[in-house]
Amino acid sequence: MESIPVASEGGVSFVLRVLPAADPAAPVVLIMPAMALKAKFYLPIAKALHAAGLSVVTTDLRAQGEAHPGLHDQPTFGYRELIEVDLPRVLAAVRARFPGVRPHLFGHSLGGQLSLLHASAAAAEARAGTATTAGGTGTADQFGEVAGVCVIGTGTVYWKAFGWRRWAEALYSIQTIGLVARVRGYWPGGMLIGGAMPGRVMTDWARHSLTSRYRPAGTTRNYDRLLAELDVPVLAISLDADRLGPKSNVDFLCRRMPRARLDRWHITATSGVAHRDHFAWVKDAAVIGPAVAGWIRERRVPEKPSA
Hints:
Blueprint: E1 2-7, E2 13-19, E3 28-32, H1 43-51, E4 55-58, H2 79-97, E5 104-108, H3 110-134, E6 148-152, H4 167-184, E7 186-187, E8 197-198, H5 199-211, H6 223-229, E9 233-239, H7 247-255, E10 261-267, H8 285-298
Parallel strand pairs: 3-4, 3-5, 5-6, 6-9, 9-10
Antiparallel strand pairs: 1-2, 2-4, 7-8
């Protein structure tokens, strides 16, 4: 895999790992990880997408994996830094490596939330630019630097989006994590989130869970409005054994994007995927990868395999 260093603000740096397709004009996919997961976790899906003819880029989120500095060697940070500071620089490096090709984002869990929120802001900026430079004219495909977004296991964590039997569990667990993160300055891991996470990411996350609104600390953007105006192609994938991002939560998030060119794929036992929880789906990358590649290339919605 090729390696590309990327610098962000405050001495933060990332390493992009690249699997280029033979065709330089092939679609490009940037994989965005979940909380506390390293980029190398996604190597099976990266290889499957690459085998399907796509160029694939992986990277870690700030303070995870190959990103520097580590969690305890920098000030705390939240959603705003991940979306508004780091992701634009990573995407700029991807576009420089693959000039003329707008990348797709493939986000897992938190990575999917970040992908959708960034895409919504980028699309709004593109619309404003089109209106300014062309008197409001332009093609329907002029929606920014992102060609499309695919998310898996990405739903709102709003407590009422969980089935009513889990309301108390969701309120207690997520708000406890947020409280511990606020007091200690970071989440040490355990409960729902196995690894350590920065404090403001978790307090932003807990606030969203309580209110259903995206209000990252320090932002000037109205992400709820931007998400409602998002008009890019989106493939939202849910898994029937996913307790952290169940179908009800994915559906709730999808309803927040009424203008998106939305496709849904709910993976069940009939989908040819044996591992269908929040993390183990990557073991079935050989099934999921080609299906996602078909959507990226042709907007072909994954369907149940033929009998």
